[in-house]
Amino acid sequence: MDISVIGTGHVGLVTAACLAHVGHKVWGHDSDMAKMDALLSGKMPIYEPYLEEIVHKNVEEGRLHFTKSFEEAVRAGSVIFICVGTPPKENGEADLSAVERVSRRIAEISDDYKVVVEKSTVPVETGIWIAKTLMFFKRPGARFDVVSNPEFTREGMAVFDFLHPDRIVVGLASPEEADAERIMREIYSPIIHGTFPCPIHGRDCKRSDVPFLVTDIKSAELIKHASNSFLAMKISFINAIADICDKVGADIREVARGIGLDHRIGPHFLRAGIGFGGFCFPKDLRAFIRISEKLGVKLTILEEVERINERRIDVAVGKIRDLLWILEGKQVGVLGLSFKPDTDDVRFSPALSLARRLILEGAKVKGYDPKAGAFAKMEMERFLASNSLQVDSFEIVESPYMAALGSDLLVVATEWDEFLSLSWERIRGSMRRPAIFDGRNFLDGGMLRELGFEYVGMGVP
Ligand code: UGA
């Protein structure tokens, strides 16, 4: 199939690369010309495992093209995926102006039948507005079907998740959209049946067929917001229980294992720590609360999920105070700055929220991250400047050992695998005081205590 992907951010670039990889001809376009220049010269604007390999392979083999021309991209595809950003407005609502602009321009350019796929994360009823916009601005001869096809990919796992999804959801704007349903099924057929060379496992990775769920468009939109909110709720739930564990000396890891063995609950998303971040959960939760409010339904349950998450940093700072007493003048090494491992994304990163709080309390922070150092530096420089704080309050260092050197405390804020194989003897010898706050319950606390560290986690004895 000929497919256009408008917007080549985390969602769009992965969509474009993976759809090309399973055999379609794909044109990617983004209004950010710096991003286009990077992609046209073979550079990846984001880090995502396997992405660079499949982009290069599919460009070389002629299935994936990038173009600076919106018009060329739109004309090339009979199916157009809208993957533009929907950032939060001041009041938490999703800003849909890019979605509207792109829909209007698609209508102004197209003169034949196109399936327009809403892939950006949007509030319920956006699809109806896209359909109305297309109708209003359409040229003679043009015909559109609009479908919602939410994405469920995780950063750091996006290529895997796209190619091996738990389900594919397609929401139709009207029951008459039989052509659109057939076309969407055809697009995803290689993924449904596992008939593509998997870049991760090699050729033989076929699982059972992936469920292909066809719904009305509003239900599909709700599935996306409700899924993310439910997952965020699991995390806040386990974090609240972790606080109880702290009070009574129980172990949240055991509690999570015990409840997760109930198949109705499941073992995933029950890792307690300094909370969830990233550009999806916090923003989608807020947007879902806002849209529900507008619809006259108060999602107080999700407001509490947010509140618990915001309090995680207070809990962490309290524990650090218990370790260090006074933070003023102390040096803290922070390991992991991205919002989770295997990504260079620092947007809404709990690690940076914690670093900011420590600096505001008078500590100096030395941060290390395997991938996100450059973005973290930019973000923290902005923070220091806007709060008139000394520029040397935050420094990016090149290794975990440099973060530990001369520090009064080492914090694990994001659980990168490489932190498991550090030489803790070496670290203990280089710290001013051998203390560890493990904000992700990631390290072996027993082993560290035996080595002479003071070790504190979140909800672990
Ligand atoms: C999330 C969803 O998991 C995806 O299904 C969805 O497609 C995506 O948002 C999106 O809407 O685009 P992502 O934000 O990449 O994916 O990251 P997650 O792996 O879900 O983690 C989110 C945050 O929760 C991270 O800060 C992570 O550290 C935290 N987390 C996760 C916990 O604190 N505990 C857990 O048990 C799991």
Describe this structure in words.
The chain has 461 residues and is of the alpha/beta class. It has two domains: 2-210, 3-Layer(aba) Sandwich (Rossmann fold); 281-456, Rossmann fold (3-Layer(aba) Sandwich), CATH 3.40.50.720. Helix content is 45%, strand content 14%. The chain has helices spanning 10-21, 33-40, 51-60, 70-76, 97-109, 126-137, 158-163, 178-193, 217-248, 252-260, 281-294, 300-324, 350-360, 373-386, 400-404, 424-430, 445-450, and strands at residues 2-6, 25-29, 64-66, 79-82, 113-118, 143-148, 168-172, 212-216, 331-335, 364-368, 394-396, 409-412, 435-438, 454-456. The strands form two sheets. The protein has an eight-stranded mixed β-sheet with strand order 3-2-1-4-5-6-7-8, sandwiched between helices. Strands 11-10-9-12-13-14 form a six-stranded parallel β-sheet. Helix 5 (97-109) packs parallel to helix 6 (126-137), helix 9 (217-248) crosses helix 11 and helix 9 (217-248) packs parallel to helix 12 (300-324). The chain is elongated and about 75 Å long. The mean pLDDT is 95. Bound molecules: uridine-5'-diphosphate-glucuronic acid. Uridine-5'-diphosphate-glucuronic acid binds at residues 121, 151-155, 228, 231, 235, 269-271, 273, 276-278, 280-281, 284, 339-340. Residues 121, 151-155, 228, 231, 235, 269-271, 273, 276-278, 280-281, 284, 339-340 line the site of uridine-5'-diphosphate-glucuronic acid.
